[in-house]
């Protein structure tokens, strides 16, 4: 695509943002959106604009346009997430909003709801992330070498085994050694199996030999040379003609549109477009000749040029204004000059650009003026003024009470609307009518004049700071002269010393008070590199695999809205899981602006059956947002920080996580952390109880604030273990709890081909995918992945062209993995019904049904009882 394509996309997106603002705030308040469906339409439109802006920003070459487009992109993303949180409130607190009916009405496909993750989350921090990964890799290699050296020095098998178990984060215990009788039984069983397999192989070979001899005997006389050649030719021609007929049949199916046309990788339009986009990105990010590198060089040179040509004029103007301010504010009696505002308060910026009075100051001035007027007017006026004021106060109180009673409905947050308005205004003023520098050529260079306008405020600020230092020195000299003149006239020089002492004492007291508020940090004497190295050496800080959220395969459900209308709350589809994880976790972590202004989500719970992708989703969150990944799972940290040392572990993790934000703190089997029953906790194993991190974890979690960009992600396969009093504490920790369901029929139809493609294979066009999806019901996605990875060995992949995979072969491997028991799935649904949102909905439905069933009779009985009491 040409550069003008992305300029057009940007223009369209900005105009659509303007239309959206008008749709949200129409002139007639009655037309403002109120219902869930109306806000859902606005959400879908913002999502489309966000996708368009993200695609345009990714391929925009002009650096200054990228800066302004980035502001619009983040503002649009923030507004989209604001509306997403509002949809949850309108949806009775349910995180998954069913929009399938709305998509049908708008004639849109479910792909519209796929939320893209901006690529600049990683690309703009590529150097930082690479340096971090290299440092982490060096630390891990150093730690592994130290462990191997320790094992070699010990020279004992037991010590070697223990070091290997300590070295591996997920080491599996081999258990106690077998008894001699058990060991002999295992050896005998394996040997008998080997002998049986060998006998079977020999019998099959002999059977094949007998079959060959039988065919020769039935053939009778051996064929002559010509007869043998004729037979071979007929067989070969038959094979060739069968292949030819098969090819013609495939071509006919392609021609009538019943079979997709085979794609040549070299001539594939999508592959060509991908290569073209990659070349454009290289033109942008090239470290030597890229447009961003040229822009950075131009910033340095043009800044020096602006300072050289306009710096002196700026300096004189600033000095003149400060001198005028000194003269205007000089004490006429003593001749003393006022102090220049400190740099912490803005310095001379307060003089050059006085801040506008706040609303509170204006109201206070009006109140003071009214009070003066009432005093001048006398008592009658004051009484007359008080009386209506009292009435107004009463009326205001009633109005406030009424508003408080009737205004319980919340109003959607609008923190990002001013940012969108500013981005649109900036686009209209700078780019709407301005031709693109460099035209439609391949290279789009920066605009020097526009860059000078952007650099002038920076140069002005530097010059102002220099002038402030000079003026402070000059002011000190002037004050000494004034003080000397005053001392010579009045003969009171001791006053100056006394005042100086008082000033010093006040300053010392302030410093002492400030010192007392400092928070205690047990690792204050350690560098961040040492903390990073310790966590990495203990396996707590790890490098997450580069997993994409798109690898969590699954489609969108088209029956969600229908089921909700029937009073059934459906399981979320796998596409909705991807959408929720992106909106609640990845986007806020990747954007500092969004994290500061959106509702703060400190923690995310992923609960579901084993092998449903909980760990993979947590790793995808860390990878796509460019986050550090801390594994605080109890089995991972067991034995590293015993006893009270766990407080230091939690402190270090959260300190490093905040410093190196964004960060993801992952805890597997998190429900066991909240189990307080000691008998039950002993069944989990481990040197330390799993709950030993609970107290410090909750304390550190409370200390997280908006803008820290730290997210706690918990994975749970048995959330019902935290029962009774533990359940309340467990549920109260999580800002969002997402159920990771088993794949349904539609999801399995997408998962099977996707898994074969991921492992280097491909299912035949006429493969019976529907039957396979039906037969694999109840299996988790991780089990299906194990089936495909076990089936597609390197040898089997080479034979796929001649011998495609059939359903019998897949079922043979499917029998080797275990399906999720129905009892486990039912237990997960029962626990999900006890979560706050679902419990409130189910309770309201039960109350409504009870009232409809026995409401009339109960009211009548209550009236009869009341009458009897009155008679008595």
TrEMBL record:
Pfam families: AAA. Residues 861-872 have a biased composition (Basic and acidic residues). Residues 492-518 have a biased composition (Basic residues). One of its GO terms (molecular function) is ATP hydrolysis activity. SUPFAM superfamilies: P-loop containing nucleoside triphosphate hydrolases (SSF52540). Residues 368-405, 490-524, 850-872 are annotated as: Disordered. Residues 604-721 form the ATPase AAA-type core domain. PANTHER family: IQ MOTIF CONTAINING WITH AAA DOMAIN 1. This is ATPase AAA-type core domain-containing protein. It comes from Tetradesmus obliquus. The lineage of its organism: Eukaryota, Viridiplantae, Chlorophyta, core chlorophytes, Chlorophyceae.
């Amino acid at each position: 695509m040409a550069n003008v394509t992305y300029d057009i996309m940007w223009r369209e997106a900005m105009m659509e943002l303007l239309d959206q603002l008008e749709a949200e705030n129409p002139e007639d308040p009655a037309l403002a959106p109120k219902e869930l469906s109306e806000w859902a339409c606005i959400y879908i439109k913002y999502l489309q604009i966000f996708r368009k802006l993200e695609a345009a920003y990714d391929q925009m070459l002009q650096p200054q346009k990228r800066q302004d487009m980035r502001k619009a992109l983040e503002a649009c993303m923030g507004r989209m997430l604001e509306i997403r949180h509002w949809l949850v409130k309108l949806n009775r607190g349910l995180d998954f909003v069913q929009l399938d009916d709305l998509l049908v009405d708008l004639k849109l496909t479910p792909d519209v709801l796929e939320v893209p993750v901006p690529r600049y989350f990683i690309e703009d921090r590529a150097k930082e992330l690479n340096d971090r990964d290299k440092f982490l890799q060096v630390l891990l290699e150093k730690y592994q070498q130290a462990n191997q050296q320790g094992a070699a020095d010990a020279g004992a098998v037991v010590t070697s085994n223990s070091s290997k178990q300590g070295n591996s984060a997920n080491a599996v215990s081999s258990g106690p050694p077998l008894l001699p009788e058990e060991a002999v039984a295992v050896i005998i069983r394996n040997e008998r199996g080997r002998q049986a397999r060998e006998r079977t192989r020999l019998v099959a070979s002999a059977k094949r030999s007998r079959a060959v001899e039988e065919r020769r005997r039935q053939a009778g006389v051996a064929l002559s040379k010509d007869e043998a050649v004729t037979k071979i030719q007929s067989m070969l021609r038959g094979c060739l003609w069968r292949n030819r007929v098969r090819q013609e049949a495939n071509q006919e199916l392609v021609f009538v549109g019943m079979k997709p046309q085979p794609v040549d990788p070299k001539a594939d339009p999508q592959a060509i477009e991908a290569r073209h986009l990659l070349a454009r990105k290289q033109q942008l990010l090239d470290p030597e000749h890229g447009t961003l590198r040229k822009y950075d060089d131009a910033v340095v040179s043009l800044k020096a040029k602006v300072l050289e040509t306009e710096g002196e004029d700026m300096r004189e103007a600033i000095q003149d204004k400060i001198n005028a301010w000194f003269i205007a504010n000089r004490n006429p009696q003593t001749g003393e000059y006022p102090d220049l505002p400190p740099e912490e308060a803005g310095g001379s910026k307060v003089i050059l650009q006085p801040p506008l009075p706040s609303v509170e100051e204006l109201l206070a001035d009006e109140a003071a003026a009214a009070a003066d007027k009432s005093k001048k007017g006398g008592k009658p006026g004051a009484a007359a003024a008080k009386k209506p004021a009292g009435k107004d106060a009463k009326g205001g109180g009633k109005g406030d009470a009424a508003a408080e009673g009737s205004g319980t409905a919340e109003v959607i947050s609008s923190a990002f609307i001013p940012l969108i308005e500013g981005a649109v205004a900036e686009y209209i003023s700078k780019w709407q009518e301005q031709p693109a520098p460099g035209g439609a050529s391949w290279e789009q260079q920066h605009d020097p004049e526009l860059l000078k306008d952007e650099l002038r405020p920076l140069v002005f600020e530097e010059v102002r700071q220099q002038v402030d230092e000079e003026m402070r020195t000059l002011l000190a000299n002037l004050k000494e002269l004034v003080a000397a003149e005053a001392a010579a006239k009045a003969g009171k020089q001791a006053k100056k010393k006394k005042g100086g002492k008082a000033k010093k004492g006040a300053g010392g007291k302030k410093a002492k008070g400030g010192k007392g508020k400092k928070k205690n940090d047990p690792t204050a004497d350690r560098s961040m590199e040492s903390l990073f190295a310790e966590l990495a050496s203990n396996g707590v800080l790890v490098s997450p695999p580069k997993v994409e959220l798109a690898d969590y395969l699954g489609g969108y459900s088209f029956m969600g809205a229908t089921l909700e209308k029937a009073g059934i709350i459906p399981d979320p589809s796998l596409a909705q899981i991807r959408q929720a994880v992106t909106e609640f976790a990845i986007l806020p972590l990747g954007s500092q602006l969004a994290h500061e202004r959106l509702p703060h989500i400190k923690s995310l719970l992923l609960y579901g059956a084993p092998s449903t992708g909980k760990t993979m989703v947590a790793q995808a969150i860390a990878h796509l947002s460019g986050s550090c990944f801390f594994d605080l799972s109890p089995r991972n940290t067991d034995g590293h920080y015993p006893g009270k040392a766990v407080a230091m572990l939690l402190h270090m993790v959260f300190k490093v996580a905040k410093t190196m934000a964004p960060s993801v703190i992952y805890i597997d089997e998190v429900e066991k952390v909240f189990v307080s029953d000691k008998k039950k906790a002993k069944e989990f194993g481990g040197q330390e109880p799993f709950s030993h991190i609970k107290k410090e974890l909750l304390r550190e979690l409370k200390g997280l604030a908006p803008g820290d960009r730290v997210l706690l992600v918990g994975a749970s396969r048995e959330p019902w273990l935290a029962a009774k009093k533990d359940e309340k504490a467990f549920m109260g920790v999580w800002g969002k709890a997402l159920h990771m369901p088993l794949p349904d029929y539609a999801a399995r139809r997408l998962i099977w081909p996707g898994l074969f493609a991921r492992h280097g294979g491909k299912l035949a066009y006429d493969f019976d995918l529907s039957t396979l999806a039906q037969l694999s019901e109840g299996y988790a996605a991780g089990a299906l992945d194990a089936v495909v990875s076990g089936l597609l060995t390197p040898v089997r992949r080479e034979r796929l062209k001649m011998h495609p995979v059939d359903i019998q072969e897949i079922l043979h491997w499917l029998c080797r993995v275990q399906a999720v028991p129905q009892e486990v799935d039912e237990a997960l649904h029962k626990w999900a019904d006890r979560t706050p949102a679902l419990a409130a909905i189910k309770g309201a439905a039960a109350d409504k049904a009870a009232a409809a069933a026995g409401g009339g009779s109960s009211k009548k009985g209550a009236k009869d009882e009341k009458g009897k009491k009155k008679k008595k």
